């Protein structure tokens, strides 16, 4: 399942993305990243595997840099791992400019989620 959208005004740890059916390969691309305070340099993107009736599995964080360099610049990362008993995935933004404690909020012009390794 592939989908796209946008992010507006996310602070570290404040929100989670929509959930999508997946338990294998996930690629997340951000295009046009900005912060409302202090200038943008990076955003930490953490992928989660939803585990029904249990704690969700932290799949690790990747730091996005390039999408801050230009309004149409993009950064993408992928996670290629399987977890038993998982049915859906989602992402959070736990850090902005390397900090979980900042008054800044992230906006992303375009977010693409791709769950197909073949392309």
Structure description:
This protein has no helices and eight strands. The protein has strands spanning about 5-10, 20, 25-35, 45-50, 55-65, 75-80, 90-95, 105-115. Strand 4 (about 45-50) and strand 5 (about 55-65) form a beta hairpin. With about 120 residues, it is an all-beta fold. The strands form two sheets. Strands 1-8-3-6 form a four-stranded antiparallel beta sheet, with no helix packed on it. Strands 2-7-4-5 form a four-stranded antiparallel beta sheet, with no helix packed on it. The mean pLDDT is about 90.
Pick out its properties.
globular, 119 residues, 4-stranded antiparallel beta sheet, mainly beta
In spatial order, strands of the major sheet run 1-8-3-6
Beta-strand content: over 45%
Number of helices: 0
Largest sheet: 4 strands, antiparallel
Radius of gyration: 14 Å
Shape annotation: globular
Gap between N and C termini: 13 Å
Series of H and E elements? EEEEEEEE
Mean pLDDT: 92
């Amino acid at each position: 399942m592939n989908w796209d959208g946008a992010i507006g005004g996310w602070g570290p740890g404040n929100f989670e993305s929509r959930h999508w059916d997946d338990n294998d390969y996930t690629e997340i691309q951000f295009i046009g990243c900005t912060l409302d305070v202090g200038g943008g340099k990076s955003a930490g993107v953490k992928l989660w595997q939803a585990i029904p009736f249990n704690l969700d599995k932290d799949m690790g964080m990747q730091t996005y840099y390039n999408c801050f360099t230009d309004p149409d610049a993009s950064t993408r990362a992928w996670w290629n791992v399987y977890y038993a008993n998982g049915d859906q995935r989602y992402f959070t933004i736990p850090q902005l400019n390397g900090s979980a404690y900042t008054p800044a909020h992230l906006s992303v012009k375009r977010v693409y989620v791709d769950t197909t390794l073949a392309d």
